[in-house]
Design a protein that fits this description.
Elements lengths: L1 H17 L19 H25 L5 H22 L9 H7 L2 H19 L2
Helix pairs in contact: 2-3, 2-5
Amino acid sequence: MKEGKSVKFNLQQQNHQNGHLSPFKLAKLLDPDASWDKDQLGDVLHWIRQAVALVCGLLWGAIPVVGGVWFIAFLLISTGIIYGYYAMILKVDEEDFGGHGALLQEGLFASISLFLLSWILVYSLGHF
């Protein structure tokens, strides 16, 4: 058992020394001077959008609200948070990542599904 741990530790050390393993730190999420690659930034934007979708879906279902105007409100809130995050907090050059369209589209369709699912479930269960 000790041997398995030491082999894993040595492998991690070798990967880290070779530059293959870059640990992700939470402080990087708010650091405008941090360097981002396209996949890392895409993942962060995707998960932020999923969190916003879940919160909005739960909130919309619990209040309860219905109608297309609330769907549009979710899209505006979600897109505004994503834009504000990468443009104002991280201050990345959007052209390095495919432009505004590519960055604003990260996680959009999955978040719509999550938003609608949580909204409908909470609304249905709470107002049966």
